[in-house]
Design a protein that fits this description.
Blueprint lengths: L4 E3 L1 H12 L11 H12 L5 E3 H15 L4 H6 L8 H8 L4 H10 L5 E2 L7 E4 L4 E4 L7
Antiparallel strand pairs: 1-2, 1-3, 4-5
């Protein structure tokens, strides 16, 4: 199975959350391999791509070490457009939600990338809009 990649902005967001809590990520006692990966990612451009699986591993490890049950929701309080590089900047400069959607659909690969990812889909009915990235199962 292919390892999906996500924007380094997510890793930067994770690090920002830790900093706001007064925690240095190195205090999480990561393995040498994990620590090297985090250093490399945080030294890379925010627009670069890194492993989604590694990010999920970091979230689980952080939740258990900090004894936090909803880390993703807590991290969400730290989100700024800067966490999503060019896409975040474009969205923050949009004049409407429709313009934001247009940018996201056009540049979705800045958010998640992988051969099995289909471009973002939009469904709309009278009162709802649903955005999703379907995965194609080749098996």
């Amino acid at each position: 199975m292919q390892d999906f990649t996500i924007s380094n902005g997510y890793f930067y967001l994770w690090n920002t959350y830790l900093k706001e809590k007064g925690i240095d990520w190195q205090a999480l006692n990561l393995t040498d391999v994990q620590a090297r990966q985090v250093r490399n990612i945080l030294a890379s451009s925010i627009d670069a791509q890194s492993s989604l699986n590694f990010f999920l591993e970091l979230l689980e490890l952080t939740e258990s070490r900090l004894e936090v049950s909803n880390l993703a929701l807590e991290m969400a309080t730290c989100i700024t457009p800067a966490n999503f590089g060019v896409l975040g900047y474009m969205a923050s400069r949009s004049g409407s939600f429709a313009e934001v959607l247009e940018y996201v659909m056009k540049f979705h690969r800045l958010v998640i990338d992988g051969e099995q990812v289909v471009p973002m889909q939009v469904e709309q009915d009278a009162s709802n809009i649903r955005l999703y990235w379907p995965l194609v199962d080749a098996s």
